[in-house]
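In pairs, describe these two lines:
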Amino acid sequence: MKRSGRYDEFVTTHNAFIVSDTDDGERTGHRSPSFLPWHRRFLLEFERALQSVDASVALPYWDWSVDRSPRASLWAPDFLGGTGRERDGRVTDGPFSASSGNWPINVRVDGRTFLRRSLGAGGRQLPTPAEVESVLSISTYDMAPWNSASDGFRNHLEGWRGVNLHNRVHVWVGGQMATGVSPNDPVFWLHHAYIDKLWAEWQRRHPGSGYLPAAGTPDVIDLRETMRPWHDTSPADLLDHTAHYTFDA
């Protein structure tokens, strides 16, 4: 996928929505109720693209409330590789390091063409199980003003309010993960697969609390309104993940 350019198309799509999603205007992928269904569709598209190369592939998830250290197994040289070197963040081991020759960063926010990370720099900490539990206990999916100022489960999970789950993990990894071109780092998919799992867990715990808003809300995606860039899927179509996959615990 990387060699063909297909992988970089996912990076470009994500960055375009990071740039265009604003609190005071149209917002679809971020800062909005459709953050979760949009990324669920994004994950599905990516997994299907992987499976077009190797049908046996399924996306793993990273439970960062348990594997909270730069020494966790996913950062080993035989999986994602480790943190970046201090002077420029350059990842120097693993299959996605610049030295492997397989992972040039083509969709960039600056001139650096290598994968960068700074795992836990500055004493940053990943969310704890207790913090995850505090967000899962919120019973309302979302509420006005339907942006980064909203209360409710979605915004506390996305990380603009409260203990900050999703956003904090992006910043903890650092490098490209802390920018709009975050899918340049393959850990993006493991992170969002776990965010998706948390949404599924929240749905299980709160069966009477559905996606909001239902209809007639300007600038955000209502329950049965289709989402860009696909224009063929609404949040309602993605509420039940079991039509597409299950989570192996």
About this structure: The chain has a mean pLDDT of 97. The domain at 2-237 is CATH 1.10.1280.10 (di-copper center containing domain from catechol oxidase). The CA atoms of residues 120 and 172 lie 5 Å apart. The chain is about 30% helix and 0% strand.
